[in-house]
Amino acid sequence: MPLTRRAAAEAKPASTSGSSTLPTASKFKRAFQRGQEWEKDDLQTVLFWALNALSCVLGVACGALGLTGYFGFLTYIVTSFVGISYYCTHLLDVDTDEFGGKSELLQEGYMSSTGLFLFTWTITYTFVYVDLLGYVV
Amino acid sequence: MISTALQVFLYALANAVLSELIGYHFVYKRDDYQSIKAGLERTTKRLAAEEANETNRSNQRKRQRRIDELKKQVQVYNGKASGKSMRLSLVTAALQIATFYYMSNYAFPNITVAKLPFTPFGFVQGLSHRGLDSDDYTDCSAAFLFLMASLFIRAFVQRYGNWSIRKASPFAQALEQAKEANL
């Protein structure tokens, strides 16, 4: 279907800074303040980085503590879900249902955070238990 | 072992940055792509505003018609953007596959780069144990570590550059389709 004339006229080139309505520094300052008004795109960006930061910390913690197998995966799934829910409801004080729910807000973060968790878990486990302590051969 | 793993990480980083720079040079910085991106953002915002706008019953049909029209426009923009970035996707996929084969066959052949804290199941073992002779399935090949690193590095580089049109993950798209099917 061709675009309507009005839509085509509105489609002007955008700056390369992206679709975000706020500068990055301001966005991350607000990420630690309660009860702010959020644009969906900004909230998605903040939650994307929050989930990835949490996954990185969890990966390092699981690796350092020597968690293996299903126990490590279970820890990641439960802790990341609880952590992000707590961050949204208690720290940001945002009603995620207004933005289509958590699954929509975090849709871009699932894959990368899982990859980051697996990577940091593996690297930390290898570093601590193979390179440093030499337990696993 | 950790230094080899860090080398694999650097390969993944270089691969992701190179892919994104190729995309920026040949597709994302062009005016036609930028106009599609701007149009899509504008239409998506209008659609969200229209959907949030509560009207009385007499205007309901009019509002629904406007929403349908905007949804079609979003589809058209998405189609155009996919057309523009299709060749780019092929190039980046080829680059990734080439790096993958280079690493498992030439750069790190039969080298355990890390120890997995879990035993991968089924078909994943084919990747995690690719090119390794040992019987221990917690040994991790360079190819598998490269894939794990690529999963997040690509997303980070794309997020940082913010040049391309962001797409929902396949999981989110399936969720959206299920929602629409229920309605």
TrEMBL record, chain A:
Pfam families: EMC6
InterPro entries: EMC6-like (IPR029008), RCAF1 (IPR010742)
Any one GO biological process: mitochondrial respirasome assembly
Family: Belongs to the EMC6 family.
Transmembrane regions: 46-67, 73-94, 115-136
PANTHER family from the UniProt entry: GEL COMPLEX SUBUNIT OPTI, PROTEIN C20ORF24 RAB5-INTERACTING PROTEIN
Compartments where found: Endoplasmic reticulum membrane
Keywords: Endoplasmic reticulum, Membrane, Transmembrane, Transmembrane helix
GO CC terms, sorted: endoplasmic reticulum membrane; mitochondrion
Ranges for region Disordered: 1-22
Keyword Endoplasmic reticulum: yes
Organism domain of life: Eukaryota
Predominant location category: endoplasmic reticulum
Membrane topology: Multi-pass membrane protein
Protein name: ER membrane protein complex subunit 6
UniProtKB/TrEMBL annotation, chain B:
InterPro entries: EMC3/TMCO1, TMCO1
Chief location category: endoplasmic reticulum
Compartment(s) of residence: Endoplasmic reticulum membrane
Entry annotated with the keyword Cytoplasm: no
Record keywords: Calcium, Calcium channel, Calcium transport, Coiled coil, Endoplasmic reticulum, Ion channel, Ion transport, Membrane, Transmembrane, Transmembrane helix, Transport
Entry's Gene Ontology cellular component terms: endoplasmic reticulum membrane
Pfam families membership: EMC3_TMCO1
Annotated GO MF terms: calcium channel activity
Membrane topology: Multi-pass membrane protein
Transmembrane segments: 6-27, 88-108, 141-157
One BP term from GO: endoplasmic reticulum calcium ion homeostasis
Family named by the database record: Belongs to the TMCO1 family.
Protein name listed in UniProt: Calcium load-activated calcium channel
Native source species: Dimargaris verticillata
